Amino acid sequence: MTEVPGFLLELGLRPDADERAVRRAYAVELKKIDQETQAERFQRLREAYEAALYWARHVREAEAAQEIQAATANAQTSGDVAQPQPQPVTVPAPATHDEHAPSLPPAADADRTVPRHDSVRDIMVALDTRLQEDPLQTVREATVLLEATLEDPRLLDMDARVLFEANIAHLLACGWRPGHEYLFEAALVVFDWRTDSARLLRLGQAGHVVDRAIVEQDAQAQQSPADRDTQRQYLELLRHTADPGPQALALGLGRVMHAAHTYPTWLRLTMDTANIEHWRERNADLARSTVQNQPSMASAHSGSISASQMTAWFVAFCGAVILIFLLRTVATSEGNQGTATANSAAGRAGAAAMAEAIRKLPTSQSSPPSLSGLPDSSANDATARWPALQAPANGKTGANAPSAQRPAVEPDPPVAQYTRQPHVAYPTMSKRLGEQGRVVLKVMVQPTGSVSDAAVLQSSGFERLDAAAIDAVRGSQVVPMKSMNGRTVAAWYKASINFVLSDVASGSATSTRPESKRNYGDAVTAAVRPNILFTKEVPGNPLVEYTLDLAADGKILAATLSRASGVPEWDAAALRAIHKTGHMPLTEQGTVPPKMVLGLRPKVQ
């Protein structure tokens, strides 16, 4: 029995459905969807409709071609003199077909095109049946399966291979099924989708969906190794179970919800997203059961205390309060008397110590100078010349002498002066999410000028930016602080790092200079560059140029490669950023040119 493709099941159709039945089923399903709030479901329905329409057209054309061939064969067998010539069957060519390539005669083209689509359809039905009956278990198994399928003689034709590749992209874009996570990874390698995004985007809407999933997967990999690996562990658990247990829910639900919000397309293609809702419901059930199992104090003690016991407890409480008040009053009175006596004794002891100190002074000095009007250095010298003046403060001249000095208040750390500026690396994920802000740090500078420790005094509001600022300052070199005797000592300094999304790198450890008014070119670059995702190191700084066709409102209608950089990966990353931008900014007059040549380099100059 032939398996029904997934896009026909989405519309509730049979394999022999015609175009009219496809359109009717699409209209019925469309009425069940709110396109504003259910955008993802609408997109999936639209992709299934397009694929089903394509399927129905080619089934009809294949049947017509077979009827013509059968009629021709019957006429030749009967020996008729006048043999009707079969009409050519027009089959739309794939997007990658070359217009200037030599074309076959109409009859030959029909004989070649119709069987090609039939063979690709048969291969896809067999592959889909194999995936449903025996889901893939590893990426290696999926890679071997795709490579073996491509070796089929029916896929030796280039157009047939392109059609097969488009069907694989559509199969993935329709959503996750068991084993699709391995098929997704294998397809990236076999068809080279990760590095050649332009090839993927030519496959239509399904290619755009897969391309967006690749971008989100790369963004997830840009996290710190610890966060990335931990999040993937819980995503793997999400793929296999709808009830992971209370401990896994408590630790992993936040990371799973973060992934669902940040990487929705990647998750939809590689795992069962319905389990996310199961996790949330299970967590809510656990929270409710925890609250219900905790008995309240009122219910535990209701009815256990009589009225006489309450009266006795109230009287005892009032008596205790009165007794404490009386004891405190007596203690305060005795304390005041003791304090007055101690102060009198301390005063007599201090006067005796002062008289003894004055008697021991040299005769050339009639009285010690006052310290209150001297600067700090004079006060230190005076203290050294008259050490007896420190006796009442530091020595114990009486039993009730003061025992400790007031603690010094830590001053605000000075601003760090660099001998080697910090190298600030703007996190790629923060650029993609538009995170920016100012981080103020407190850094410990050693006598050698190296930074041994750093702490955040004022956060930017984003953990990635705070961590990047700490990493940048740790690699800098600061002018160390010197003591009174001229030696360098360890001390705390204050440093600040500004993260601003602009063409000019904000690597300064102090405040950023105000930017001058940007021209239109700067506005275009600022709109496109945050969407660039490219981490590969390339020699030099190659330039790629794309010619953009723009609508009156700035919408990008088409992007054509006019000058290659020589690095295909960079060309693909730039094209992906242009498609993600979507609109170019308007000029001060509120207009945009109909055509624009946009040049981009990997490194900001």
Protein model, in words:
By secondary structure, this protein is mainly alpha-helical. It folds into four domains: 6-76 and 86-222, no CATH class; 223-287, no CATH class; 418-499, TolA/TonB C-terminal domain, CATH 3.30.2420.10; 520-600, Fusion Protein Consisting Of Minor Coat Protein, Glycine Rich Linker, Tola, And A His Tag, Chain: A, Domain 2 (2-Layer Sandwich), CATH 3.30.1150.10. Helix content is 53%, strand content 9%. Helix 3 crosses helix 4 and helix 4 (106-133) packs parallel to helix 6. It is extended and about 130 Å long. Mean pLDDT is 75; it is low at 79-114, 296-304, 361-410 and 503-517.
Low-confidence parts lasting 5 or more residues at pLDDT below 50? 79-114, 296-304, 361-410, 503-517
Order of neighbouring strands in the sheet with most strands: 3-2-7
The oligomeric state of the chains shown is single chain
Residues in helix, %: 40-55%
Secondary structure: number of strands: 10
Helix and strand arrangement:
Elements: H1 6-11, H2 19-30, H3 39-78, H4 106-133, H5 139-150, H6 158-173, H7 180-190, H8 197-201, H9 205-221, H10 225-240, H11 246-262, H12 264-270, H13 274-292, H14 297-301, H15 307-359, H16 376-385, H17 391-394, E1 418-420, H18 428-433, E2 437-445, E3 451-458, H19 463-474, E4 477-478, E5 481-482, E6 488-489, E7 491-499, H20 520-528, E8 544-550, E9 556-563, H21 568-581, E10 595-600
Antiparallel strand pairs: 1-4, 2-3, 2-7, 5-6, 8-9, 8-10
Helix pairs in contact: 2-3, 3-4, 4-6, 5-7, 6-9, 9-12, 10-11, 11-13
TL;DR of this structure?
The protein has 605 residues and is mostly helical. The chain has helices at residues 6-11, 19-30, 39-78, 106-133, 139-150, 158-173, 180-190, 197-201, 205-221, 225-240, 246-262, 264-270, 274-292, 297-301, 307-359, 376-385, 391-394, 428-433, 463-474, 520-528, 568-581; strands at residues 418-420, 437-445, 451-458, 477-478, 481-482, 488-489, 491-499, 544-550, 556-563, 595-600.
